[in-house]
Every structure is written in structure tokens, then in C-alpha cells.
Specification:
Length: 368
Amino acid sequence: MRLSSERLLFSVLTLFFAFTHSSLRAQEPEPTQHEWVIRQFKTEGGVVLPEARVVYGTYGHLNAAGDNAVLLPSHYMADMHGYSWLIGPGKALDPTQLFLITSELFGNGRSSSPSNTPEPFHGPRFPAVTIRDNVEAVHRLLTEELHVRHLRAVIGFSMGAQQAFQWSVSYPDFVERIVATAGTAKTYGHGVIRLEGQIAALTADPAFNKGDYKSPPEKGIQAFSMVWAGWLFSQEWWRRELWRSEPALGSNFAQVMEHFRTSFIPGADANNLILQMRTWESHNVGGTGRFGGDVEAALRSIKARVLYMPSETDLYFPLTDARYEAAFIPHSRLVPIPSLWGHPAGAGASPEDQRFLNDQVARFLREN
């Protein structure tokens, strides 16, 4: 089963691999797109945005009891389609039974972002936003716009997993369960160093001009893309040349490398890329007010049942970090994903990964 060239490009952009064989595509449900605006939204850093826009998608409908809502928050530069590997016939999430909400992070170019916000907050002047800012905005969306008072689950991959953990700490009585795949409750030092290296590669291009570029800093984005690609998959994935299973990447290593250099995130805005990296690297559930920076205390406070699914070969969020955190979460189950696909294993990168994730998530949601 192979990805089309167009869909593979999108998949690399959003750091997951959604398999799009025509027979599956025909069955894959599409979300309904919406946009919600929060007036005078105050960020955690104290900056007030006159309008904060949240783009989101919905599948299905909220039932009369109001107990069938599941939130799927987006990951790095992704949109509302980032969870198609979990949604649909034969998968863990059935939109005929559940009300699914797929929210989009600030900075993805659709929700409020450096690229689409007018002055005085355009481009590099857009304020830093945290995972907690994103959770707060979506909590207001759920309660004020959609009238959701309880979530059966928050299911998140990568930065979506960061949001899932934050939901369980910020709103412990609002969320029944969380599923976190390939993402942790805090970004530790090694992750910050990686992200700073990618930011440095991007901003070294003179065309970046401190974020006030007149045209995209293409050399900087290409340098960023190459650094990012080196961390995306496992070393074993590269040694075994598993890229050969996806012909759209190229027929030899040189072509694959050039694909990642020039087509990794086509059309992406550099300031958006940086904003979401800063959101990623600053995350720590321990920073939630009452915990004073103590991640262990924050993890101990979690009331929700937790299915914690790191990828065994993830270089972004290593398995050792997940094991450390899981030891403090009262009602958690640590289930590593046995995969060579590195970080994208947490979003069903291979057919085997997708089956494993769907089986585990479906079982977890059925448990009493």
C-alpha cells in the first residue's frame, strides 16, 4: 500500500503518514471546517491579541447526553486532517458514534499565526504562545461555542500529545482519558537544543532579515528542512533504506535527500515554523500555576486514565523520557510502539504502526 506523491508531500509536512490507497480514501470521512474568534485573547505572556482565530474541524455530532466528545489537537504545522489514521470504518474512532473535534494550533498558518495576523502583531512581532495558551483557547471554544462540558478523551500525537497532557493538568475534571503518542509532558534539554539548532539553520539565511523578509528565506528553510529530516526517522530506518517503500521520495539516496531539502514543507512561512518550535520547546506541564515548575507534581495530579505510547525509536521524544514521566502518573499504561519509523510511528507511519495504534486506542476507549 503506497502513498500518492501529492499526499506523501503533505504527510511529510505534517509529520505523519496517512495511507491513501484509493479504496481507503473513498471510505475516509472528511471533517467539516469551522473558525471561531476569541476577542481580546490574553496570552500567558501577557500580550493581548485583538482577535485570536481557532480553525477546527468536526466529525459527527454531540449526543443528547453530551458524553461522546473526543478532542484531537493538531501537531507541528498540521491541520484538521492530521488524525485520519484513527478515524473511519474499521478504525478506533467511529464518527457515527462519536463527536470528534480536530483543533489547529496557533501558528500553523490557518489559526492565528505570524503570517496571517495584521500589525502590530504581524510576522516576527506575533507574541510567543504556549501549549497552555492553545489549550485555554480550545477550552473556550468547546464550552462557549460547542457547549461541550466533558471530553471522553483527548488523543494527541507529538505536539498534540503535549496538549493532551496539559488538558489533564489544566482541566482534571473535564477530561476522562488521554492518549499521548510520540510526545511528552515536558520538553527536556536535548529537545530544546534540537529545536534551537533548527531555528539557527533557518535564521542564518541573510534573507530572513530578523523575520521581516520580503520573500521567503529559501536557503534557510532548506537548511532547516535538512536538520529536521535527520531527526525524523530512526537511524535504523535509514540504514535499512526503508525510504524505498515510498517511491515518491526518490529512487536513490541522493534523490531522497534532495526531496527532503527542497520539498519538506513547501510554501511554509518561516515565522510560523519558528513560532510553533518555540511553543514546542517551552512546554512543561509543571509550569501550570499551582505547580511552580515541578513537572513531577503536575504529573501526580493527573486524574484522567492515560494511555502513553512513545515510539521505541523516536529521536524527538525518546522512550526514556516517557518512562521517566509515566512513573509519576497515577492511572497510566506505558505501551511503546515497536517501530523503526521513529517519530512518525506515533501517527501510523507504516501499516503495522497504524494497526498497532488503532488496536491499542480502541481497546483503551472500550475499557470501563
